[in-house]
Write a structure and sequence with these properties.
Blueprint: E1 2-5, E2 15-18, H1 20-37, E3 47-51, H2 58-67, E4 73-77, H3 83-92, E5 97-100, H4 102-115, H5 129-135, H6 137-143, E6 149-152, H7 159-167, E7 171-177, E8 184-187, E9 200-201, E10 205-209, E11 214-219, H8 230-236, E12 237-238, E13 241-250, E14 256-261, E15 266-267, E16 273-274, H9 276-284, E17 289-295, E18 301-306, H10 312-322, E19 331-334, H11 351-359, H12 374-381, H13 400-414, H14 429-432, H15 451-457, E20 464-468, E21 473-475, E22 499-502
Parallel strand pairs: 3-4, 3-5, 5-6, 6-7, 18-19
Antiparallel strand pairs: 1-2, 7-8, 8-9, 10-11, 11-13, 12-13, 13-14, 15-16, 17-18, 20-21, 20-22
Helix pairs in contact: 3-4
Length: 503
């Protein structure tokens, strides 16, 4: 059916062969869930999904193309990852479910916390979800009463991020899969989710754990191999089981827990295995730590992105108090940019690039952010580039998420809302420096937009459009609030007499 190339986060991209049978095998399990709960959701059909996963990714295809017609549902696709635009689409399109990667949840959390300070400390997780929903009803009203859930995939979701949105009264549904499995392997039932897990294997898919902890998959959803790569295909299978390269285990209820990538496990001199995600989860919950990456190869080394004034050694001290002896951090570096390098589509950490940066002895001192210029700000996003006033944004190698975070930084610095279009194309650094707060215009009153004013005005403001069939031209009034008076209809020939349509 198609050949989908992997992102190449851990090696050279490979073309994954996807057959029609692979796709159909992934549809069976969602259809069973849909048929079970369909009667409860008939008043809400069609359910609107906002899909923020690119269609070049199998997860994006599965949700927006393959499963949606059977719900039935509507897919809303948008360009860019601006939190402001995501929220606007949720409200305007009456979206019920957002499909995204964990990085989007991080961006939305920052955006929501700025607008709703009460979300900094959400309702306790021990409360029933109805009470949590009611506690944050102002946020739910803002996003729209239909919006209720996130569907997360393509990258690991931090436990604290899942807990944050769950405490706000939203369902967070995790799944697990790979491009090679077209893509779903396991999925949480949206009506019976279990936090910290990626759900149970879907219908027709077998999953087992190898002696070394690797997750093995077998089923009709598994690819027949890689495009023109017989040796890579042979290495990916073991006695008919596909080797995912991920380490995991099943809990007592049969839910799958993914611990991390097999290649990324740190083996200490004592022979103990350390999963980087476990250490990162502790670090990311510390005050002053914006994000972290843990690399090896034989001892735990943390690379931190810190808030202004945060002490990396104090962060390590606090983290080590919460970690097991074999997990404790032995070295620390401070990343010089605002965010760690990640892949473009799935936003996974580029650990190999981070490891190389450490081994080459790059500077680990964080730049002074006080009184920074536009060049200083951009240097945080492109630390390996030489930036001048004539440099164009397209020359800095910024990903789409880099541009979003840059936009948020500019908005905080200038105190204004910035159009995302200003950060695209060949706009130069000097042009960005000209962005400033717009002049204060006319302050319009708000009373005339209240419900009683609209109820009084709307019956008095009919708008008509005159459609001339003789000339095939349509004249539509642009003044929606003006009483439109038309004359001369009786003078028109009966064969070309216009039809009046009330808008």
């Amino acid at each position: 059916m198609e050949i989908v190339f992997t992102s190449g986060a851990t090696g050279e991209p490979k073309g994954v062969l996807i057959t029609h049978q692979n796709i159909l095998a992934n549809i069976v399990s969602p259809l069973e869930i849909i048929s079970t709960y369909r009667r409860w959701f008939l008043p809400f059909f069609p359910i609107r999904f906002l899909s923020l996963i690119p269609l070049s990714h199998m997860f994006g295809q599965a949700i927006a193309l393959f499963v949606l017609p059977f719900i039935p549902g509507t897919a809303v696709l948008m360009h860019g990852y601006s939190p402001h635009e995501i929220v606007r689409q949720i409200r305007a399109r009456r979206v019920a479910i957002v499909v995204c990667v964990p990085k989007i949840l991080e961006l939305l959390r920052k955006y929501i916390q700025l607008s709703f300070p009460e979300t900094v400390d959400p309702a306790p997780a021990s409360l029933h979800w109805i009470f949590r929903w009611w506690h944050h009803r102002r946020l739910h009203w803002f996003l729209g009463w239909r919006f209720c859930a996130f569907v997360i995939g393509a990258a690991p979701l931090a436990k604290e991020l899942e807990e944050f949105w769950s405490r706000l009264g939203f369902a967070v549904v995790q799944g697990y899969g790979l491009t090679e499995t077209a893509p779903i392997v396991a999925f949480n039932n949206p009506f019976a989710t279990k936090e910290g897990t990626v759900g149970t294997p879907i219908v027709g898919v077998e999953v087992k754990i190898a002696p070394d902890g690797e997750i093995l998959v077998r089923g009709e959803n598994v690819t027949p191999g890689y495009y023109q790569a017989p040796s890579e295909t042979a290495a990916a299978f073991e006695n008919g089981w596909f080797r995912t390269g991920d380490i995991g285990n099943f809990d007592d209820s049969g839910h799958l827990i993914v611990r991390g990538r097999k290649k990324e496990i740190i083996v200490t001199p004592e022979g103990m295995n350390v999963f980087p995600e476990d250490v990162e989860d502790v670090l990311n919950r510390l005050p002053g730590v914006r994000e972290s990456a843990v690399v090896g190869p034989d001892h735990v080394h943390a690379v931190l992105v810190l808030a202004d004034g945060a002490d990396p050694h104090e962060a390590v001290l606090q983290a080590n108090q919460q970690l097991e002896a074999h997990q404790r951090i032995r070295g620390v570096s401070v990343w010089p940019a605002e965010r760690l390098p990640r892949t473009e589509s799935t936003h996974k950490l580029k650990r190999k690039e981070i490891q190389t940066w450490i081994e080459t002895g790059q500077s680990i001192s964080k730049q002074d952010l006080g009184g920074e210029t536009m060049i200083d700000l951009l240097q945080r996003y492109a630390p390996d580039r030489t930036i001048s006033p004539d440099s164009a944004l397209d020359q800095l190698g910024l990903s789409s998420l880099d541009r979003v975070e840059l936009m948020l930084d500019l908005e905080r610095k200038l105190g204004i809302t910035i159009d995302e279009a200003l950060l695209t194309g060949n706009r130069t650094v000097s042009a960005l420096e000209q962005i400033s707060a717009p002049p204060v215009g006319t302050q319009f009153p708000t009373w005339n937009r209240l419900w009683f004013a609209r109820a009084f005005a709307m019956p008095r403001l009919p708008v008509y459009s005159y459609l001339s069939f003789e000339s095939s031209r349509t004249l539509v009034s642009q003044a929606a609030s003006i009483w439109l008076r038309c004359a001369g209809r009786s003078s028109l020939p009966r064969t070309t007499r216009a039809t009046w349509i009330r808008l």
